[in-house]
Amino acid sequence: GENVEQHPSTLSVQEGDSAVIKCTYSDSASNYFPWYKQELGKRPQLIIDIRSNVGEKKDQRIAVTLNKTAKHFSLHITETQPEDSAVYFCAAFNGNQFYFGTGTSLTVIP
Amino acid sequence: ETGVTQTPRHLVMGMTNKKSLKCEQHLGHNAMYWYKQSAKKPLELMFVYNFKEQTENNSVPSRFSPECPNSSHLFLHLHTLQPEDSALYLCASSRGTSGGNQETQYFGPGTRLLVL
Asked: Average pLDDT for residues B27-38, to the nearest whole number?
């Protein structure tokens, strides 16, 4: 089966700085990689996703990059704001089911 | 925010109790999922239903019993749970389970379960 690893588990950045969260996966059949944001006490919400036929995708301050050869994908948040503080987790879909990372708790310090 | 709803939001139960969690989706999706979210652990897939048929059961103990009467509703029946079953139980739905854009999942707010 698939194994998804996510780093770091916690991340603190100053407001305005960038934040990068990385995930690796093991199953070369995985072809869809969403990122979710979960604020305290709230549901996970999809913030961006990427498919295996694309190397990078951007949506305003959020971007995701995928390296299929190395089997890793990363979430990049630029110009961070306090409301970006949350737990972020990645997932990989191998055509059968999703496998999730353990989550990164991001704190943006005003 | 109201696409996938779950009730109750919080539940405290003893080990001998029987309770049920309910999930409802208003997105016209055909697949529904139960996940368990524990601290410091990745989301654990428990059950998958596609067009009301169970397609995945990830070695979940029999004290958890799912029911999917139609594509919009999903239940998780709980009986004789253990304290280690305390967690956030999340429901999700998607248009389908494989291929194209069908697998994108939308989550409910979860039920925070405490087993005493």
From this structure: 93
The answer, yes or no, to whether the previous bond of A110 is cis (omega within 30 of 0) is no
Cβ–Cβ of A99/B90 closer than 8 Å? no
Residues 6+ apart with CB under 8 A from A60: none
- Over residues A33-55, the pLDDT tens digits come to 999 999 988 899 999 999 988 89
How far from each other are the two terminal CA atoms of chain A, in whole angstroms? 41
What residue of A is the nearest CA neighbor of B39? Answer: A102
Strand A10-14 vs strand A104-109: parallel, antiparallel, or unpaired?
Answer: parallel
Residue located via tokens 């998607």: B94
| Residue range B96-113, pLDDT digits in tens | 877 555 678 899 999 999
Distance of CA A95 to CAs A108, B3, B101, Å? 35, 24, 12
Q: Under an 8 A CB cutoff, do A43 and B98 touch?
A: no
Distance between CA atoms of residues B25 and B91, nearest Å: 9
Taking residues A53-72, what's their average pLDDT?
94
If we measure between CA atoms, which residue out of A32, A44, A31, A76 comes closest to residue A58? Answer: A76
